[in-house]
From TrEMBL, chain A:
Listed CDD domains: GDC-P
Biological processes per GO annotation: glycine decarboxylation via glycine cleavage system; nucleoside metabolic process
Classification via NCBIfam families: PRK00451.1
Top-tier EC class: oxidoreductase
Function: The glycine cleavage system catalyzes the degradation of glycine. The P protein binds the alpha-amino group of glycine through its pyridoxal phosphate cofactor; CO(2) is released and the remaining methylamine moiety is then transferred to the lipoamide cofactor of the H protein.
Catalyzed reactions per annotation: N(6)-[(R)-lipoyl]-L-lysyl-[glycine-cleavage complex H protein] + glycine + H(+) = N(6)-[(R)-S(8)-aminomethyldihydrolipoyl]-L-lysyl-[glycine-cleavage complex H protein] + CO2
Record-given protein name: Probable glycine dehydrogenase (decarboxylating) subunit 1
EC number: 1.4.4.2
Organism: Anoxybacteroides voinovskiense
Automatic annotation (TrEMBL), chain B:
Pfam families attached to this UniProt entry: GcvP2_C (PF21478), GDC-P (PF02347)
Any GO molecular function: glycine binding
Binding partners and assembly: The glycine cleavage system is composed of four proteins: P, T, L and H. In this organism, the P 'protein' is a heterodimer of two subunits.
Lineage of the organism: Bacteria, Bacillati, Bacillota, Bacilli, Bacillales
Name of the protein described by the UniProt record: Probable glycine dehydrogenase (decarboxylating) subunit 2
Single GO cellular component term: cytosol
Keyword annotations of the record: Oxidoreductase, Pyridoxal phosphate
């Protein structure tokens, strides 16, 4: 069969069969017993040519309302941010994207160095000592943080703030079933982790306390007050954090966090319907030899040149098998590269400027809602998201907004019974004053 | 220490920028007015300060220090380093796929849901399974997801004593690691001299505590487990489930389906067989397929087709929960879907036929120069042993490093663990005969060098941007980040 991905000609095939010493390709499958041999043809759509398929899939994509056409105030863990144009140019270099894991360092110095730089940037933002080369996403990184805490402390109880992203919490609970951890949710009070409730649940069996900073409601958790409670009985303090916010906020490392995880999606990674994004995982040096996933380290070659290698591999599945600290193998290397390029382009000044702009625009929007008589539900300081109460379910309100070309906020009633009719609104640097004003105007008669 | 290639931090100069943010069109409030002082960062993160051209040159230089499939042949066993079609990259970047939010109303993402649903249908057909979830992010994540479902299945039957997962001694390291994360103990079953699972040993280890047997078929030696139905019978008779690691699916497209071989759970690596690029180590995608009796335990939500279009089903009380925020690595799933639709049923069949033809051709041509531990038809990959060369003082690691001088990525080495000085070679179907011949010639030359001038091989590589690196010091005194 002729196909642009299959170079073998009939002549090649005949020569090769002769070398092998068989009459037909079919003979090479003679070891598959007839009882399990698939003799039919897959019942699926026939192949399409490149132009035809391109056209069909373009039409399929056009059935979706994308955030380049619509104006989006939806965040809830995935944000519409400025992506420097060069990000896509760098990750489109096929020396990067068609490579495997850099197991042969001599011909993988590019990837290894890029990851070493990524690790450094994550350490800088989080205020931690060691960062790995990436995890699947923020949610699974958080689950692995719970598992690491339990393995390190040899304790089985996880205190999980319910102001942590609901889907992250779900993932933690699924992972917790493996080693049999008990996950206790700590309620929020006024949109931040209830310190008294946390205090009450805290005891010697607690492996870790998990909070998010800024949390799911956009509120800035009082890490300073939470840290002493988390550490009162030698448990770990785990913070999930939006790395962009750390351009302005005091890094969790400075508040004594033991593990900081999150998703680097705000740096150069499109929403892509929820993935692939880019989890990051950072720890204090005491946990360096227990961190999950790949780590790149600096070394020298035989002639004294600086070079980079995958290191401390004795933690990993391909060496330790059932004793590994995690089963992770593939991670999100290419997205870590995208995040590195975005963090580099933004740089020291840009990260701060962009984070500040998020605060400024979100606060302008909040004021606009307040001025129009809306109840902004939580009083505390926030980053780029806040909660507004409506007089009807957010899903209903969103339908109306959609007609105006606006993708509204997240319907909190889905996950928080006490927040029925409440909408979580995200305002990034990409939303204009005009768009914000239009949103408030369109919602004008929906205030509670 | 020579620093041939500067780090991006070493190029930094205060006052340079590489970004272009929109102008601020709202009041420029001072952050200190709205954020308490304790929570305002006092020291800026030390990120680079560089211009756009600095960045492009830096990463272009790095890319030149990296070998990908587009740079040259990459016969890395069990990794299926085939060509990554460019149409996939374009399609994944369509605004309607790249820039949609996972929490948008379902009616605004019908195209995405349709693609997911149709991909699931195609994967069901390819694997012979009854349902597929796209949620797992990679192969190992799929393994763990599948095992968690098996665990939930046993527990739903009141069967709490199935604490063990059996894996062959040829299994990839993720198999036992995934079993551990899912809360199981791993039991190893031996291989026979022919390189297949030892049925007697399997009968010995299987029992009422068996949760599952995890298997790759063809196995990591590239050999088809001919006794698969008997193995399925042994495991099923004991009440266990059969798990298929789809790492090697490239070998059996249109030739045999895991579902027909008796497997209950299958994970696929869309970044292998289905051309999602490897990305330098990810992102991948690891969908999991199951037989009917395991459907209730699929992670939620599932994607369903209803009268009014496609929707997510969250109402699944027996689901194992979520294994990932949102719905999986959608962007990779788009690429895999594009690939499947580019190939069609005939194309996929040809993929496997040529992958197997190429592997057998290389195996036969190289058998004269290297030891062939399993002399029978292989599937998509085969293993050689460097035993003969080891006697001459040349290790498999040396052979691998010498291949770098010829511009090739070496095969997977020292795996599977049961083969001494192992080299595991997987050419894939997208390579031409000329490429295979050139690689074979290089391997033959290296075999000759091992006999005549072993030091050339022992000291390789000679032409790469760095020579062999000191991995021992890297691990003893780890430097894991740049510091001024």
């Amino acid at each position: 069969m002729l196909h642009r991905y299959l170079p073998m000609t009939e002549e090649d095939k005949q020569q090769m069969l002769q070398t092998i010493g068989v009459q037909s390709i079919d003979e090479l499958f003679s070891d598959i017993p007839e009882s399990v041999r698939f003799r039919g043809e897959y019942n699926m759509k026939p192949a399409k040519s490149e132009p035809e398929l391109m056209k069909e899939l373009m039409a399929l994509a056009a059935k979706n309302a994308d955030t380049k056409t619509y104006c989006s105030f939806l965040g809830a863990g995935v944000y519409d941010h400025y992506i420097p144009t060069i990000v896509d140019h760098v990750i489109s270099r096929s020396e990067f994207y068609t490579a495997y894991t850099p197991y042969q360092p001599e011909i993988s110095q590019g990837e290894l160095q890029a990851i070493f730089e990524f690790q450094t940037m994550i350490c800088e933002l989080t205020g931690m000592d060691v960062a790995n080369s990436s995890m699947y996403d923020g949610g699974t990184a958080l689950a692995e943080a719970a598992l690491l805490s339990a393995a390190h402390t040899k304790k089985k109880k996880v205190l999980l703030s319910n102001a942590v992203h609901p889907e992250y919490r779900d993932v933690v609970k699924t992972y917790a079933k493996g080693p049999g951890l008990e996950v206790v949710e700590i309620p929020h009070k006024n949109g931040v982790t209830d310190v008294d409730a946390l205090q009450k649940e805290m005891d010697e069996d607690v492996a870790c306390v998990i909070v998010q900073y800024p949390n799911f409601f956009g509120q800035i958790e009082p890490l300073k007050d939470l840290e002493p409670i988390a550490h009162a009985h030698q448990g770990m303090f785990v913070v999930a954090s939006n790395p962009l916010a750390l351009g302005v906020l005091t890094p969790p490392g400075q508040f004594g966090a033991d593990i900081v995880v999150g998703d680097a999606q705000p740096f150069g990674i499109p929403a892509q319907f929820g993935g692939p994004h880019c989890g990051y995982f950072a720890v204090k040096s005491a946990l360096m030899r227990k961190i999950p996933g790949r780590l790149v380290g600096q070394t020298t070659d035989e002639e004294g040149r600086r070079g980079f290698v995958l290191t401390l591999q004795a933690r990993e599945q391909h060496i330790r098998r059932d004793k590994a600290t995690s089963n992770i193998c593939s991670n999100q290397a290419l997205n870590a590269l995208a995040a590195s390029v975005a963090m580099t382009a933004l740089g020291k000044n840009g990260v701060k400027e962009m984070a500040t702009m998020n605060i400024q625009k979100a606060h302008y929007a909040k004021e606009a809602f307040v001025n129009h008589g809306f109840d902004v539900v939580f009083p505390g300081p926030f980053f780029n998201e806040f909660v507004v109460r409506m007089n009807k379910p957010a899903a209903e309100v969103n339908k109306k907004l959609l007609e105006k070309g606006i993708i509204g906020g997240y319907d909190l009633g889905r996950e928080y019974p006490e927040l029925q009719n409440c909408m979580l609104i995200a305002v990034t640097e990409l939303r204009t004053k005009e768009e914000i004003d239009t949103l408030v105007k369109e919602l004008g008669d929906c205030h509670a | 220490m020579h620093k041939d290639q500067p780090l991006i931090f070493e190029l930094s100069k205060p006052g340079r920028i590489g970004y272009s943010l929109p102008a601020l069109d709202v009041p420029a409030i001072d952050v200190a007015q709205v954020i308490p002082t304790d929570y305002i960062r006092t020291e800026a993160p030390e990120l680079p300060e560089v211009s756009e051209l600095d960045i492009m040159r830096h990463y272009t230089a790095l890319s030149k220090r990296n070998h990908g499939v587009d740079s040259g042949f990459y016969p890395l066993g069990s990794c299926t380093m085939k060509y990554n079609p460019k149409i996939n990259e374009n399609v994944a970047r369509f605004a309607g796929f790249a820039h949609i939010h996972p929490l948008q109303p379902e009616e605004t993402v019908q195209g995405a849901l349709e693609l997911m649903y149709d991909l699931q249908e195609h994967l069901k057909e390819i694997t012979g399974m009854d349902a597929v979830t796209l949620q797992p992010a990679a192969g190992a994540h799929g393994e763990w997801t599948g095992l968690m479902m098996i665990r939930a299945y046993h527990e739903a039957n009141g069967d709490y004593n199935r604490t063990k997962v059996i894996v062959p001694d040829t299994a990839h390291g993720t198999n036992p690691a995934s079993a551990t994360v899912a809360g199981f103990e791993t039991v190893t079953v031996k291989s026979t001299e022919e390189g297949l699972v030892d049925l007697d040993d399997l009968r010995r280890v299987v029992g009422s505590d068996t949760a599952a047997l995890m298997l790759t078929n063809p196995n990591t030696l590239g050999l088809f487990e001919e006794n698969i139905l008997e193995m399925a019978e042994i495991v099923h008779a004991a009440g266990g489930k059969l798990y298929y690691d789809g790492a090697n699916l490239n070998a059996v497209l249109s030739k045999a389906r895991p579902g027909d071989m008796g497997f209950d759970v299958v994970h696929l690596n869309l970044h292998k067989t289905f051309t999602g690029p490897h990305g330098g180590g990810g992102p991948g995608s690891g969908p999991v397929g199951v037989k009917a009796d395991l459907i209730p335990f699929l992670p939620k939500p599932t994607v369903e087709k209803g009268e009014n279009g496609y929707y997510f089903d969250y109402d699944r009380p027996q689901a194992i929960g979520r294994v990932k925020p949102f719905y999986g690595n959608f962007g990779i799933n788009v690429r895999a879907y594009t690939y499947i639709r580019s190939m069609g049923p005939d194309g996929l069949k040809a993929v496997t036929e040529y992958a197997v033809l190429n592997a057998n051709y290389m195996m036969r041509r190289l058998a004269e120069y290297y030891d062939l531990p399993y002399n029978r038809h292989c599937k998509h990959e085969f293993v050689l042993s460097g035993k003969r060369q080891k006697k001459l003082g040349v290790r498999t690691l040396d052979i691998a490093k010498r291949l770098l001088d010829f511009g090739y990525h070496p095969p997977t080495i020292y795996f599977p663990l049961i083969v001494e000085e192992c080299m595991m070679i997987e050419p894939t179907e997208t390579e031409s005969k000329e490429t295979l011949d050139a690689f074979i010639d290089a391997m033959i030359q290296i075999a000759k060098e091992a006999e005549e001038t072993p030091e050339i091989v022992q000291e390789a590589p000679h032409t790469t941007v760095v020579r062999r690196l000191d991995e021992t010091t890297a691990a003893r005194k780890p430097i894991l980040r740049y510091q001024k």
